[in-house]
Design a protein that fits this description.
The complex is a heterodimer.
Chain A lengths: L2 H16 L14 H13 L1 H19 L5 H19 L5 H25 L6 H34 L4
Chain B lengths: L2 H23 L9 H34 L2 H33 L4 H8 E11 L7 E4 L12 E4 L2 E9 L4 E5 L6 E6 L4 E7 L7 E7 L9 E4 L11 E10 L5 E8 L8 E8 L12
Antiparallel strand pairs in B: 1-2, 1-12, 2-5, 3-4, 3-12, 4-5, 6-7, 6-9, 7-8, 8-11, 9-10, 10-11
Classes of the chains: A mainly alpha, B alpha+beta.
């Protein structure tokens, strides 16, 4: 994936996520589109690229919000790395597998996010964080995976694996 | 361990350490926006406004046909309801006038108009992540907005301004886990702190309520004003559940905020509050 295109895509996705996406919120939960892009790209490209795209995606997201800079960078880097590791071991061209990987790696990324909140001394009840934030967000994000997986897959096939 | 692997590991450790340090130094309470960040947010503001407008139009477009289902029956029911409410309003107006005459109790809107200078603002974006409750408004330093100014709707408290650019400001919602509001249970004057649970589910909780305090589900919670940037007496929310805190010494209560934080569109920023006893100065440092 070419870096300038990836950055542009990220900016568009983040603007979309911070404005329009709220209208599809279910009980306050919205899908994490940056996470979706990161884990699917990582799944197809491998651990190194996954971690790199995750870090870049997260840092752009952090710069947008202007505070806690680095929290999304680290959590999405972890999610991207795990998705890459899953891609190395699993069959990559299967949508249900990609959806499952999206769910579990997003969940892992959100758990890293939660641990970083603890590091920042922001206390959120663990049960609440898991059941009302991490689990529903990961599920909602994974539901969208089948819709964009093929597009990312074709794009990566078309442009080659280079960043 | 090979030299290349060791180098990569060292790079990763340095990257994580630097990121953790950056995270700590950009906690909203401790930091100010850099000139570059401030300019970036100002530049992006028209784009965000445009997207938000498009989003609302799409939302209205989708919700209109859905709302038409069963519209006739609903319309009939509403007409009956209007008739009933009209007579109720007349009766309530009587009570209201009597109440004002006898007790000097003012309703909240009147109090607001007398005590606060307010400016209206529109929400142009929300924080992207799942954990934080922040919104960006289309008013900034050019409109006289300063950090720590209170933001509310006629229904209740929304949050406070945490950062300001020339044409936008960022508001920390009362449901954000890093938010804390000194509050009182209105009926019993029981003190406590309302803190956010997570930024998205729009629930808050009141903690450190003394164990023997007479708190009940359905009671209203208002700002206490004491030692807080928020003016006194602003409605915060309603108690929906009460629990024992793990220490056993205190109770905590789940609060449903009065302000509809999940679909905020327009809000009011308190740019000035009339000084009075127990009411702190709001806005500015």
């Amino acid at each position: 994936m070419h870096l300038p295109f990836y950055l542009l895509l990220l900016v568009v996705i983040i603007i979309f996520q911070t404005t329009i996406l709220n209208i599809v919120a279910i009980a306050g939960v919205t899908p994490d589109l940056v996470m979706l892009l990161v884990v699917l790209s990582g799944f197809l490209l491998g651990t190194r690229e996954g971690a790199f795209l995750g870090f870049i995606g997260g840092i752009v997201e952090d710069l947008f919000s202007g505070c806690y800079i680095g929290i999304n960078a680290l959590s999405k880097m972890a999610a991207g790395y795990l998705a890459g590791a899953a891609g190395d071991r699993l069959y990559r061209e299967n949508i249900p597998i990609a959806t499952g990987v999206t769910f579990f790696t997003s969940l892992a990324g959100l758990i890293v996010n939660y641990l970083l909140l603890l590091y920042l001394k922001i206390h959120v009840s663990p049960l609440y964080a898991f059941l009302r934030v991490a689990l529903p967000t990961a599920a909602y994000t994974a539901v969208l995976a089948p819709f964009i997986f093929r597009r990312i897959f074709r794009y990566i096939q078309l442009r080659g694996r280079d960043l | 361990m090979r030299w290349v692997t060791a180098k990569r590991l060292l790079f990763l450790i340095v990257l994580i350490a630097v990121t953790l340090a950056a995270m700590r130094s950009t906690i909203p309470e401790r930091t100010r926006l850099t000139p570059l960040g401030s300019k970036f947010r100002d530049v992006i503001e028209p784009v965000q406004t445009g997207f938000t407008w498009v989003g609302r139009q799409v939302h209205h477009l989708i919700s209109f046909p859905v709302s038409m289902i069963g519209a006739t029956a609903r319309s009939q029911a509403l007409e009956e309801e209007v008739e009933r409410l009209k007579s109720e309003i007349i009766q309530l107006n009587e009570y209201k006038m009597e109440n004002q005459r006898l007790t000097g109790l003012l309703n909240y809107k009147q109090v607001m108009a007398q005590k606060f200078n307010l400016i209206t603002a529109s929400v142009i974006s929300r924080s992207p992540g799942s954990w934080f409750g922040m919104v960006t408004l289309n008013r900034g330093a050019n409109d006289g907005v300063q950090e720590n100014m209170t933001v509310l709707t006629p229904e209740g408290l929304v949050g406070r301004v945490v950062s300001v650019t020339a044409s936008t400001c960022q508001v920390l919602l009362i449901t954000d886990p890093s938010s804390g509001v000194g509050s009182l249970v209105q009926d019993t004057r029981t003190p406590g702190i309302v803190e956010g649970v997570d930024g998205k589910t729009m629930v808050a909780r009141m903690i450190h309520i003394p164990n023997n305090a007479p708190v009940e589900v359905g009671q209203a919670v208002v700002t206490s004003g004491s030692g807080s940037v928020y003016p006194k007496g602003i409605p915060v929310g309603e108690i929906t559940a009460i629990r024992n805190e793990p220490s056993g010494l205190f109770l905590s209560a789940e609060i449903r905020p009065y302000a509809s934080l999940s679909n905020l569109e327009e809000v009011l920023i308190v740019t000035y509050a009339q000084p009075e006893a127990n009411t702190p100065r709001v806005g500015g440092q």
